[in-house]
């Protein structure tokens, strides 16, 4: 009889309300900064896979947009991605903050309650609460989702994340290696560029501006020592274009510098980045534009 370990693999989808730490969690689990994470809601717009491969396992994590009640077509597309993630998961990681109540979209929460897929409910940011509040939260969620396994964690402080990986591996079925062992994500280099630029816009502008922005990399040319990138930043109105560019182009220059530095770290190569700002009126509400932007 062989005592050789069986290879386990599967899809582990991360869901939760905006700003509960889903993207931070995935980056820490992957030990790589694959997805953008800011303090602002709706930072994540797409499902992004992170592929973690070990000697006898491959876990395909999927970060998803924060759950909300859609106000326009872009947000509807984002919620479609979340609903899809409930269907194709082998394991669901449901991330909540201590003191938080149920999901902000009732339909998604009802699907979560009815699913037969194993759920690990992660009580995140436990480094910020008392043991009493933690116990209250465990009782609250046990009543709402009795089939879920509850695990207190801190994504930021890396508390209980090794334990989480072991729990996931125990649940996953035996299966094939879906991706090459050196592949970290299913997304292209151009997508990574778009997201890094969008993150810098989220961090540098206030109010509605970051939410009205989409980024498209039009040119990505890699040589031995240099990557040359042309990227277009789309906004919905002329007034937003002026704000993005800023006085004498200073605001856009700052975004470009920060994005370039981040991309040089990620690609481990010199980057030459050119940014252009264009207006595409009300793109968040137009099916054709959303399709063009990959939604």
Automatic annotation (TrEMBL):
Family per record: Belongs to the TRAFAC class TrmE-Era-EngA-EngB-Septin-like GTPase superfamily. Era GTPase family.
Role played: An essential GTPase that binds both GDP and GTP, with rapid nucleotide exchange. Plays a role in 16S rRNA processing and 30S ribosomal subunit biogenesis and possibly also in cell cycle regulation and energy metabolism.
Xref: Gene3D superfamilies: 3.30.300.20, P-loop containing nucleotide triphosphate hydrolases
Gene: era
Region called G5, residue ranges: 153-155
Quaternary state and interactors: Monomer.
Protein name: GTPase Era
Residue ranges, annotated region (G2): 42-46
Region described as G1: 16-23
Region (G4): 124-127
Keyword terms of this UniProt record: Cell membrane, Cytoplasm, GTP-binding, Membrane, Nucleotide-binding, Ribosome biogenesis, RNA-binding, rRNA-binding
GO molecular function: GTP binding; GTPase activity; ribosomal small subunit binding; small ribosomal subunit rRNA binding
UniProt binding sites for GTP: 16-23, 63-67, 124-127
Subcellular location: Cytoplasm; Cell membrane
Topology of the protein relative to the lipid bilayer: Peripheral membrane protein
Domain Era-type G: 8-174
InterPro entries, alphabetized: G_ERA_dom, GTP-bd, GTPase_Era-like, KH_dom-like_a/b, KH_dom_type_2, KH_sf_prok-type, P-loop_NTPase, Small_GTP-bd
Region of interest (G3), ranges: 63-66
KH type-2 domain boundaries: 197-281
């Amino acid at each position: 009889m062989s005592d050789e370990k069986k290879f386990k693999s599967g899809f582990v989808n991360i869901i939760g309300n905006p700003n509960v730490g889903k993207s931070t969690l995935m980056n820490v689990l992957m030990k790589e900064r694959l997805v953008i994470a800011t303090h602002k809601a709706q930072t994540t717009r797409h499902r992004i896979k992170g592929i973690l491969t070990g000697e006898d396992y491959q876990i395909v994590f999927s970060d998803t947009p924060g759950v909300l009640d859609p106000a326009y077509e872009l947000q509807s597309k984002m919620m479609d991605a979340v609903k899809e993630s409930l269907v194709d998961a082998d394991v669901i990681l449901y991330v909540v903050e201590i003191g938080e109540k149920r999901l902000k979209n009732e339909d998604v929460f009802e699907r979560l309650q009815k699913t037969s897929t194993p759920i690990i409910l992660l009580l995140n940011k436990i480094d910020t609460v008392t043991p009493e509040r933690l116990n209250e939260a465990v009782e609250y969620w046990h009543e709402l989702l009795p089939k879920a396994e509850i695990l207190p964690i801190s994504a930021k402080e890396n508390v209980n994340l090794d334990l989480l990986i072991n729990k996931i591996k125990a649940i996953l079925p035996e299966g094939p290696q879906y991706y090459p062992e050196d592949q970290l994500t299913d997304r292209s280099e151009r997508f990574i560029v778009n997201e890094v630029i969008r993150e810098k816009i989220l961090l540098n502008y206030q109010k509605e501006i970051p939410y009205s922005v989409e980024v498209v990399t039009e040119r990505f040319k890699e040589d031995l020592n240099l990557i040359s990138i042309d990227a277009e930043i789309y906004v919905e109105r002329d007034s937003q274009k002026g704000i993005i560019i800023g006085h004498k182009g200073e605001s856009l220059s700052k975004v470009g510098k920060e994005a370039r530095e981040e991309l040089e770290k990620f690609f481990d190569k010199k980057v030459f980045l050119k940014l252009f700002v264009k207006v595409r009126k009300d793109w968040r509400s137009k099916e054709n534009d959303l399709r063009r932007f990959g939604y």
